[in-house]
Design brief:
N-utilizing Substance Protein B Homolog, Chain A
């Protein structure tokens, strides 16, 4: 059976080389998945802090593979609180497979003498977020709320699903929404997910504000992978017409599969960039769940903070504005358009459309969401 620490090391090294999406890399793991996930995502969430702790022990930087081995050991010692003898023993054993005898001695020495204090580190290093993002959030929310947001992002999230009834011992009701359940036995749930769809409670808001009715025609302009599409169908009692549009045929395949699994029969998919192929049609309601920076869901995507560049936020704002303008052309007079993102950034939110509902993760206990309702 593959060793979880060795698998995590391999995933980290591959991620460093390619910056491939972390969840895509993790999808390849079949054995010892829970611990591998904890180590891989834990390293991503605490990357800057771990690099800082290592830098205080090393006169010169070790080879990348040795650095990651040490950082995995430090994560187990100081974040997972694994007993020192176990964490050091397992990490040294991993080093013996990938490093020279001298490097193995170095790994052992660093772990045995490492000072876990991060007090001397700048706040963005302590909380392991990019400096530009930390300063942006401090400017918007103040230091206290920026710290709370970073702590939120560094905490592994629970899994929530949308369904019509609880599953004793597997799913439990939540305070967020009547159809939102918390997964308490992930192994049993994912063995046979049935008529449930995994989604955070924040994702219910846009569809509830859209308020689609049975018999209506609805356009989901950025539909993949289909969570909001299938919830629209559920609210419409599977009566009416839904067009699920997306730029990617591959991702539209996920919409089709999720509709099939959930028994949705009123959805037709259309591969369409910016909604242009739908010009001339008109709908009662249009949902624009726009592509965004995803800064409201960083807790669920621990690699995102290291992939995102500030310039991308400004670029996305242009795309979002065009999508909203298209949606307003595709809705009937008197019809409703809902614009939503999972971003926390004003360029993608308030500067595009005035808010109807906004969630802030540490305050609301769910992912960040921005929802604006407009009527033509």
């Amino acid at each position: 059976m593959p060793n979880a620490r060795a698998q995590a090391l391999d995933l980290i090294l591959r991620w460093q080389r390619s910056r491939q999406f972390a969840d895509e890399l993790l999808d390849e793991v079949r054995e010892e998945r829970p611990l591998t996930t904890e180590l891989f995502y834990g390293w991503l969430r605490n990357k800057s802090a771990l690099e800082f702790l290592l830098s205080r022990q090393a006169v010169k930087p070790p080879r990348p593979v040795v650095a990651v081995i040490i950082e995995l050991g430090l994560y187990q010692l100081h974040f997972l609180k694994i007993p020192a003898h176990a964490a050091v023993h397992e990490t040294v054993a991993l080093a013996k497979e990938h490093a020279s005898p001298a490097e193995v001695k170095f790994v052992n020495a660093v772990l045995r003498r490492a000072d876990p204090s991060l007090e001397a580190a700048p706040p963005w290093v302590r909380f392991s977020h990019p400096e530009w993002l930390w300063k942006r959030w401090v400017s918007r929310y103040g230091v206290e709320q920026a710290e709370a947001l970073c702590r939120w992002n560094n905490t592994p999230p629970p899994v929530y699903v949308r369904g019509t009834e609880p599953w004793p011992g597997v799913l439990e009701p939540t305070e967020f929404h009547p159809l939102c359940y918390r997964v308490v036995d992930a192994a049993k749930f994912f063995a046979n997910p049935g008529q449930y769809y995994v989604q955070d409670p924040s994702t219910f808001i846009a569809v509830d504000v859209l308020d689609p009715q049975p018999g209506e025609s609805v356009l989901d302009l950025c539909a993949a992978p289909g969570g909001k599409t299938t919830y629209i169908a559920q609210k419409m009692q599977n009566r009416g017409r839904i067009i699920a549009a997306d730029a990617s045929n591959v991702r539209l395949g996920l919409v089709t599969e999720n509709c099939r699994r959930l028994g949705v029969t009123i959805v037709a998919t259309v591969a369409c960039v910016d909604g242009r192929c739908l010009r001339g049609q008109q709908f009662d309601r249009v949902l624009v769940d726009a592509p965004c920076s995803n800064t409201g869901v960083m807790r669920r995507r621990p690699d995102l903070r290291w992939r995102l560049e500030e310039e991308e936020i400004r670029r996305l704002a242009g795309v979002q504005r065009e999508l909203l303008e298209t949606a307003l052309q595709l809705v009937k007079p008197g019809g409703v358009v809902v614009y939503s993102t999972c971003s926390l950034e004003s360029e993608e939110n308030e500067q595009i459309a005035p808010p109807t509902r906004v969630t802030f993760p540490p305050r609301d206990g769910m992912d960040g969401a921005y929802v604006a309702r407009l009527q033509r």
